[in-house]
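Just wondering, does anyone understand what follows?

——
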Amino acid sequence: MRRLSGLREEVERWNTLGQRVQDALELAALGDESLSEELIAETEALEREIERLEFRLLLSGPYDRGDAILAIHAGAGGTDAQDFSEMLLRMYLRWAEAHGYEADVVDRLYGEEAGIKRATVTVSGPYAYGYLRAERGVHRLVRLSPFDAAHRRHTSFALVEAWPDLGDEVSVTIDPNDLQIETFRASSAGGQHMQKNETAVRITHLPTGIVVSCQNERSQTQNRETALRVLRARLLQLEEEKKRAEIAELKGKHVDAGWGNQIRSYVLHPYQMVKDHRTGHETGNVQAVLDGRLDEFMEAYLRSMMGAGESGNEH
């Protein structure tokens, strides 16, 4: 029903656009010069809307229209990497807010000194996964470290992962005997426990070694359900990666299952620039990007994938 509702909205959007174009053509046919400014403004608005809807056609993967689960992991760089991970978390939350998406941090492990070691966020809204899949990979930060007494330049890394959040819509078979479920007390920054009861849940999928946890909900049952949602998404992604690896092996293409090279660099010193290494797209307005202005990078990546003949089904 949700998919049907989304399709109806999309059809209605295109029908409305078609009617606006027809109305503009009829207005132009009148030849009334007093209406020229109104006609120009409407034409420009139609061009922007058509461009936006045309871009949506790039989001044609099987899960692109739906919700997403985003995970951020601190990599090499110690405290700087943990601080960078928290900067990325804030960036994605700002991006989600600007698009009217509902973003919920379901798990967060704080660093001992600053930042976070990891975080998991559910992002709900139209095309959330279609956009966020463009963010998967290693992100690199270069800056003068605020945690270095000598204030030297440091390079740190964080890994961003994204999976489609399918809830109960997809059939991923999970044998209860394959699950190791633990409960613990949710904690806050500095390692202080926020609750007396063990409401947080950690689930380990024994055959794959995948570990997911949730501590944001008030009850253990809610945390368990959310953790299972994340686990289903990760198992689905794992199956798809295996299929892609098999296809790539048949083609003779090497598949690197590791972190790989960074997809994007955020440079704060000695100059300011954010550059995506996959597309070459860059900007000198680093603060705007860290405040959530990511669309131009996402769109550049998705367009490059379409130009390379790769569909959303493969990413």
Summary: The first helix runs from residue 2 to 29. Helices lie at 2-29, 36-56, 78-98, 128-132, 220-251, 286-290, 295-307.
